[in-house]
Amino acid sequence: MACRPASPQRPHRSFTADGYNSRHVDAEPPAGPQPSRAAELLSLLDWKRRVFDLYRRVRDAASPEEGWSVWCAERDALFRDHPQSPLPPVERVSFEGLRYFPYDPAARVVAEVEPAPREEVAIGASAGRPIVFERVGTARFRLAEEECSLGVFWLAAYGGGLFVPLADVTRGNETYGAGRYLLDTVKGADLGWSDGRLVLDLNFAYNPSCAYDPRWACPLAPPSNRLAVPIRAGERVYLPPG
After folding, report:
1. Other Cβ atoms closer than 10 A to 148
2. Phi and psi dihedrals of 152, rounded to 5?
3. What's the confidence (pLDDT) of residue 32?
4. FRET pair for 220, CA 20 to 30 Å: which of 133, 142, 184, 226?
């Protein structure tokens, strides 16, 4: 059975590649047959499988830079070809790849996680209501001779998952203004551990879906995750084709 078109009084919502994110479509759904709920969910499942497998390949790579090269190439393929791509369909036709800073070995760090008292935190989103997380602790590390820290959160929903967003002084110019994601394990973005410490390879920082299309609603980097140093590693700000 095809999905029922959204009523003019309510935005159409579809499932998303970001798991907990919502996609708000203020206009009527496109004309023509709509995918069934089952087809949409199975498509989302395929996206999630591919992302989980991609990060497994990253962790198993012979070197971090080799894993990063695989990550960049596979993300481009998913964004171009997969029906769950966060890109607007019209932009996929001429899509030539996402933009990244060159790989920087110095941007790969391991962090001690300093535990925090159990606390629910409502993190603001690009649209809609804040998303509730539980504060896990603070990841502390040195980067470019500076002491840095990032809040570490756990998604307070079924299944849960570790979430580490970040923003830095390049945001709004060289990188997406609302920040980027580094770890989001509910969606497979997991760089693993090293000797009991959290691997934070900033070369794998990536844009949330709302960076490509404002109809996506994404949790944003809270004040605890805004660094006072420039992070010229990972994904750069998205520029639509043309």
Report:
1. 20
2. -115, 125
3. 53
4. 142
For the segment 209-227, the average pLDDT, to the nearest whole number, is 94
DSSP string, 87-147: S-HHHHTT-----BPPP-GGGEEEEEEEE----EEEE-BSSSS-EEEEEEEEEEEEETTEE
Q: What does each C-alpha distance from 38 to 6, 14, 42, 88 come to in angstroms?
A: 17, 12, 6, 22
Query: For residue 221, is pLDDT > 90?
Result: yes
* pLDDT tens per residue across span 156-178: 888 889 999 999 999 999 999 99
DSSP 17: T
**Is 30:166 a contact under the CB 8 Å cutoff?**
no
Sequence letter at residue 99? R
Confidence of residue 218 (pLDDT cuts 50, 70, 90): very high
Please report, as a single letter, which amino acid is at residue 5: P
Handedness of CA 210, 23, 87, 242 (dihedral sign): negative
Q: Is the pTM of this model over 0.85?
A: yes
> What confidence tier does 242 reach under pLDDT thresholds 50, 70, 90?
confident
pLDDT category of residue 23 using cuts at 50, 70 and 90:
low
Q: Which among 57, 61, 60 has a CA at the least distance from the CA of 74? A: 57
Q: Which residue carries 């059975």 as its tokens?
A: 1
Going from N- to C-terminal start, the domains of the chain cover 105-225
- Exposed e or buried b for every residue in 54-76, given b needs 16+ CB within 10 A? bbeebeeeeebbebbeebbebbe
